[in-house]
Amino acid sequence: MEIKTFYFNPIRTCCYVAWDDTKECVIVDPGCNGRREFQRLVDFVAINELKPVKVLLTHGHFDHILGLADTAAQWPVEVYLHPADRALLPQSEEWSRQLGLEMKPYDGPFTDLADGDIIRFGHTELKVLATPGHTPGGVCFYCEADAVVLSGDTLFAGSIGRTDFEEGDLDRLLGGIAKKLMTLDGDTTVLPGHGPATSIGYERSTNPFLRF
After folding, report:
1. What are φ and ψ of residue 148, in 5° steps?
2. What is the rounded CA–CA span in Å between residue 30 and residue 66?
3. Percent helix, strand, coil in the chain (nearest 5)?
4. Does the CA dihedral 140-30-73-88 come out positive or negative?
5. Residue 58 phi/psi, 5° resolution?
6. Going by CATH, does the domain composed of 2-206 fall within 3.60.15.10?
7. What CA–CA distance (Å, rounded) separates 48 from 90?
8. 77 in helix, strand or coil?
9. Are 193 and 29 within 8 A, CB to CB?
10. For 173-203, how does the pLDDT look when each residue is reduced to its tens digit (9 = 90+)?
11. Which residues contact residue 1 at a Cβ distance below 8 angstroms, ignoring those fewer than 6 apart?
12. Is the Cβ–Cβ distance between 15 and 39 less than 8 Å?
């Protein structure tokens, strides 16, 4: 599996395109703001002759779904989201308007995510790890074969997702990190929703929020 990182919107949300030798790909958290950012995604897919088949959402906050409607209109993709985060979508649209960001409403179908689900594209498998706390339906996507986890806003380099929103829950977030992420091999690469990549082993030994 190969992965390309894009940094989109003023909050610098990480959007990931992951593909393998079949050229099928998934787009994780299309947070592109406006046509210019979305065109970067379109151009990358075209230049590399990729075939988007799925959009995977780690959670429903606005900065991770700004470009969802454009993405679903551009390619025939299934859109995956944990059902507990469906209620966040109207809130995300409102936040986007207040911040002057260009979020088109997405009115298409969703495929539900659940803990332990296997998402397949090409020859690649991603396991869904439910890690609520930042949002009620927050998830990570783990590829055991390539030792990489896409952690959304659950785990960052040197930090964790914020839980001071109304729907946040610090105890649930820490519990999910301890049970689902810190039990992974230390060499596992962590690709977060914001900021630089890190590893499970490094966060296990240095992250000040993870003193279990």
Report:
1. -140, 140
2. 7
3. 30, 30, 40
4. positive
5. -70, -30
6. yes
7. 34
8. coil
9. yes
10. 999 999 999 999 999 999 999 999 999 999 9
11. 18, 19, 20, 124, 143, 145, 146, 148
12. no
pLDDT at 212: 61
Q: Measured between alpha carbons, how far is residue 122 from residues 19, 68, 142 in Å?
A: 8, 22, 16
CA distance 168 to 136: 7
The pLDDT > 90 percentage for the chain reads: 90
Q: Which residues fall within 8 angstroms of residue 51, CB to CB, at 6 or more apart?
A: 23, 24, 25
Q: Is residue 183 packed enough to be buried (19+ CB in 10 Å), middle (13-18) or exposed (0-12)?
A: exposed
Strands 111-112 and 13-19: unpaired
pLDDT digits (tens, 9 = 90+) for 95-130: 888 888 878 889 899 999 999 999 999 999 999 999
Number of residues that make up the chain: 212
Determine contact, residues 49/23, Cβ cutoff 8 Å.
Answer: yes
Copy the structure tokens of residue 211: 């003193």
Q: Tokens in use for 212? A: 């279990």
DSSP structural state of residue 7: E
- Whether the per-residue pLDDT at 60 is higher than 70: the answer is yes
- Phi and psi at residue 109, to the nearest 5°: -80, 160
Q: Distance (Å, rounded) from C-alpha 5 to C-alpha 13?
A: 10
- Three-state secondary structure call for residue 112: strand
pTM (predicted TM-score): 0.96
The answer to whether residues 202 and 158 touch, using CB atoms and an 8 Å cutoff, is no
Q: Quote the Cα angle for 144-169-177, to 5°.
A: 25
